Amino acid sequence: MLSRAGAASALTLAAVGATAILPGAAPAADASSVSTAALWIAASKAGSPYQWGATGPYRFDCSGLTQYAFKRAGKQLPRTAEEQYNRTHHIPASARQMGDLVFFHGRGGVYHVGIYAGDGVIWHAPKTGSVVRRERIWSKNVSYGRVNG
Length: 149
Prior knowledge:
The chain has about 150 residues and is of the alpha+beta class. It has a single domain (about 5-145), classed as endopeptidase domain like (from Nostoc punctiforme) (endopeptidase fold (from Nostoc punctiforme)). About 30% of the residues lie in helices and about 20% in strands. The chain has four helices and six strands; from the N terminus they run ααααββββββ. It has helices at about 5-15, 30-45, 60-70, 80-85; strands at about 90, 100-105, 110-120, 120-125, 135, 140-145. Helix 2 (about 30-45) packs across helix 3 (about 60-70). The longest helix is centred in the first third of the chain and has 13 residues, at about 5-15. It is globular. The termini are far apart. This is Glycoside hydrolase. GO terms for molecular function: cysteine-type peptidase activity. Keywords: Hydrolase, Protease, Signal, Thiol protease.
């Protein structure tokens, strides 16, 4: 019988369609492999508490989660959502793929970021008092960015 962590990992892999990432293995060079790995890593942090300014491995804010996930997948991202937006290749919604970053825009610029999980949902660290979770995109005021491999 699988442990809870093992079952959650197996379900996460099945949900994102990823293959297992071997510890110590060299990260794949292409963007889709890096992004898929980052998505899997973010999903593995489900239930981790939100904390403003936290970058993991046990607590996260939104950009801390994306930075952590991509770093573990082999790609460096800047610290804030705005900086991550400025560093990614912007793509139309029609071209979005699992593992792309989803940026939420407001009056002051980019205020939130998550990792696209397909079917209009993201993995993200929402706000104080919440936890890392999978959630439907709630705004039309979003843009998408692809992290180059």
